[in-house]
Amino acid sequence: MAHKVVEVNAVDACLGAAEAATKDGKLAVVLCTGDDDESGSSWCPDCVAAKPVVDKVLKEHGGDHVVLVVCKVGDRTTWKDPNNAFRTHDKFRLKSIPTLFAWGTPKRLVEAECSDEGKVELLFED
């Protein structure tokens, strides 16, 4: 069975989705990315580059025990605001996007690391 994907655009929704997944014994993998623009792609070039890599690794290493929580952090102006909730919340403290991490673990990838298939695969190792 394939992994589940939950897309949210607020800190509280992201927290809720990740906590619900782990409570159910699943691995919550959180991808924080820029909002999509009018073209349907993120305004963030690193986010655009990371998406196919994350999708490929999830297809190969995911399964019904994995939930991908995609957190949209805002448009460019919203993201650049130092008071953006994803920057200030204790559970996130984002400095850059994309950021990919396994919820409840110290495993975290940022920017170009999210496009490195080998590094993304490491998120799924115990």
UniProtKB/TrEMBL annotation:
Cross-referenced InterPro entries: Thioredoxin-like_sf, TXNDC17-like, TXNDC17_dom
Gene Ontology MF: a single term: protein-disulfide reductase [NAD(P)H] activity
GO cellular component, one term: cytosol
Domain Thioredoxin: 19-126
One Pfam assignment: TXD17-like_Trx
Recorded superkingdom: Eukaryota
Family: Belongs to the thioredoxin family.
UniProt-recorded name of the protein: Thioredoxin domain-containing protein 17
